[in-house]
Amino acid sequence: MIALPDVVTRRWTRAEYERLIDLGVFRPGERLELLAGVMVVREPQGSGHAMAVQLVQEALQRAFASGWAVRVQLPIALDDESEPEPDVAVVRGHARDYPDGHPTEPVLVVEVADSTLRLDRRAKLPLYARARVPEYWIVNLVGRVLEVHRAPTGPVEAPAEPRYGERVVIAHEGVVRPLAAPAAEITVADLLP
Q: By residue range, what is the domain housing residue 152?
């Protein structure tokens, strides 16, 4: 690879990114997402990752009553420069409620992490906190635990870097109750392959 010292890169807005998609600039099936103005290539999924995504989806569909949509690897319009495609997100309403744009206010975002653990903690976590997503889970396949992040600090508080005020790591045999579905109890083992 050729090193390019001191180059200036161009950041993209979400509107520009969506326009490129509409124009068919990207190849069919090309796995990209926009994170803080940067187009990021999504990692290929191994079988453990894919299974965990499906297990999370199934658990959240059981936990959330009607009136909620559990979205798998679909875009979320976080702000003017980010349109991630989290592994699973829970939003109010139904799929037909978003014909003209992606949801903007998920109540829960879940990333399944193995090779992407660093990206999910260091790049995506601040984006979700800045957008004030109330709850962010990382299904950590490496440690076989669930990392639960709550109490986001966002643009209102304007910290040096947005973050979550609460972080709890729940072991394999532990349980979690989603903030938006507090009567539901999900065993962490049910989320892990």
A: 45-191
**Residue 141 contacts by C-beta under 8 Å, 6 or more apart in sequence?**
48, 49, 52, 112, 113, 114, 192, 193
List all residues 6 or more positions away from 96 whose beta carbon is below 8 Å from its beta carbon. Answer: none
78 domain-assigned: yes
pLDDT at res. 155: 65
Q: How far is it, in rounded angstroms, from Cα 112 to Cα 191?
A: 9
What values do phi and psi take at 51, rounded to 5? -65, -45
CB atoms within 10 A of CB 139: 25
Whole-angstrom CA distances from 161 to 11, 43, 122, 127 are 19, 25, 10, 9
Residues of the chain with pLDDT under 70: 1-4, 154-160
CATH of the domain at 153: 3.90.1570.10
Distance CA 121, CA 118 (A): 5
133 within some domain: yes
> Is 34 inside a domain boundary?
no
Domain total of the chain: 1
Domain-located, residue 99: yes
Tell which residue, 36, 47, 42, 49, has the closest CA to residue 74.
42
From residue 2, alpha-carbon distances to 18, 38, 41 in Å are: 30, 20, 19
